[in-house]
Specification:
With about 110 residues, this protein is an all-alpha fold. The protein has 4 helices and no strands.
Length: about 110
């Protein structure tokens, strides 16, 4: 986590490092976008967002959270880790509410 953040910072002033970091992160954002597109196909609309926008938002949540954690923000300052964990809880809740084709599940 720290090495990536340091490489991001170095990439601001070093074009070669910036290009390498962009390539690395582009692969990660592409994966997040693919997962969001699969979720949209399986569960239905992503609301006003495209799969690419969802992937971008999720990726930036984690990159920003990592930066805050490295700066020393702890649970009492900002609940960074807890907030990220709740994204997983939200996804699981949404998955269990639908039966896979976007319709509400009738299971109780």
């Amino acid at each position: 986590m720290r090495v990536l953040q340091e490489m991001i910072a170095e990439g601001w002033s070093n074009q070669a490092v910036g290009a390498t970091v962009r390539e690395l992160l582009s692969g990660w954002f592409a994966l997040l976008t693919e997962v969001a597109a699969e979720a949209e196909a399986r569960y239905g609309s992503l609301g006003p967002f495209t799969a690419e926008e969802i992937g971008t938002l999720i990726g930036n949540c984690f990159i920003g959270a990592e930066a805050l954690i490295l700066l020393g923000f702890e649970r009492n300052d900002l609940p960074v880790r807890a907030a990220l964990r709740r994204i997983g809880v939200l996804i699981r809740d949404l998955e269990t509410r639908t039966n896979g084709d976007g319709d509400e599940s009738s299971a109780t």
